[in-house]
């Protein structure tokens, strides 16, 4: 999920903690738990430091990796709880510990439910795990929390209020999962294509995207109100194409391919060289695939510059490639 969703859950869990009489009767403990739930709900994404230190490409490869792993759940919980206790003074440590732990676990659990996924199974497996039934940003989940915050502000007891909020959130998540299973069944029954299949949620319950990958082709489509529509199909790129093979030597392309799925390479001709664009076909916006890696290759088959990340406008891509020109910056 996005950062604002995780922050929202952090404050919501702090309200839910008031169900514990020890919390509702002790403002110092309630404040400490608020810090614990908000920080815990965001701690796995502290791997953003990788972007600041190592650059965007390295961040793309490692985001939602080790920081979301089984052992990281314990490390984040103990680290945050210990720091809070250090500054909070003489208060009960155990409530801070388990509410912080709940925030961390909920973060990873929510990330597992969307299409990007996590490496939550580390160190036992490096496989990217995703359940694909919640969007990266879900307005319904926001709405439930906003109602809860308004009621809290108006004087309603936060404990029972957020108990109801999370009952409704839980019911909504179950409904989304059931719809996911129904839509998946519709697609499987409506096509005889045999391949790797991924269903991608949108913010709307009635609209879902999907990708089917066969040995030779990618099929991209959507389902709206149970009606299937084919959007694109791509013949797979030629793995022996010299420029595509050259692009694979680039670090940014390598970072991108390490955690992407259904990746398709396109060659876009240019005046001073060609661009090899690697697209993740799971993430489509209208007719555009904004999550990509791009390597610009000159007429001597040398990589001039590259970039990986979310690109929604061609002008922005030009600027990124210019900024990363290998004549100016050593990647």
TrEMBL record:
InterPro entries xrefs: Transcription_regulator (IPR053170), YdjM-like (IPR007404)
Record field: transmembrane: 70-90, 96-116, 128-155, 161-179
Alphabetized UniProt keyword annotations: Hydrolase, Membrane, Transmembrane, Transmembrane helix
Gene Ontology MF, one: hydrolase activity
Name of this protein: Metal-dependent hydrolase
Natural source organism: Metabacillus litoralis
């Amino acid at each position: 999920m996005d950062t604002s969703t995780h922050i929202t859950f952090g404050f919501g869990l702090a309200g839910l903690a008031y169900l514990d009489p020890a919390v509702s009767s002790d403002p110092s403990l309630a404040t400490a738990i608020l810090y614990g739930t908000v920080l815990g709900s965001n701690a796995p994404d502290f791997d953003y430091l990788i972007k600041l230190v190592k650059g965007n490409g390295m961040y793309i490869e490692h985001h939602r990796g080790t920081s979301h792993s089984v052992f990281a759940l314990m490390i984040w919980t103990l680290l945050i709880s210990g720091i809070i206790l250090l500054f909070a003074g003489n208060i009960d440590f155990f409530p801070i510990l388990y509410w912080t732990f709940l925030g961390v676990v909920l973060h990873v659990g929510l990330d597992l439910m969307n299409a990007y996924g996590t490496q939550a199974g580390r160190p036992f497996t490096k496989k990217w795990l995703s359940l694909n039934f919640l969007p990266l940003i879900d307005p319904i989940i926001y709405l439930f929390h906003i109602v809860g915050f308004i009621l809290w502000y108006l004087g309603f007891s936060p404990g029972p209020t957020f108990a109801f909020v999370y009952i409704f959130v839980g019911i909504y998540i179950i409904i989304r999962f059931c719809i996911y299973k129904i839509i998946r069944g519709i697609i499987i029954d409506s096509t005889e294509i045999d391949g790797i299949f991924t269903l991608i949620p949108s913010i709307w319950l009635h609209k879902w995207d999907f990708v089917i990958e066969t040995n030779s082709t990618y099929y991209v489509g959507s389902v709206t109100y149970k009606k299937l529509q084919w959007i694109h199909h791509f013949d797979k790129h030629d793995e022996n194409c010299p420029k595509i093979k050259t692009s694979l030597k680039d670090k940014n392309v390598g970072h991108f391919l390490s955690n992407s799925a259904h990746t398709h390479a396109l060659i876009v001709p240019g005046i001073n060289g060609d661009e090899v664009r690697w697209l993740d076909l799971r993430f489509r916006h209208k007719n555009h695939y904004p999550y990509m890696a791009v390597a610009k290759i000159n007429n001597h088959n040398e990589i001039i510059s590259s970039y990986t990340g979310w690109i929604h406008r061609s002008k922005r891509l030009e600027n990124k490639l210019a900024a990363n020109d290998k004549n100016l910056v050593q990647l």
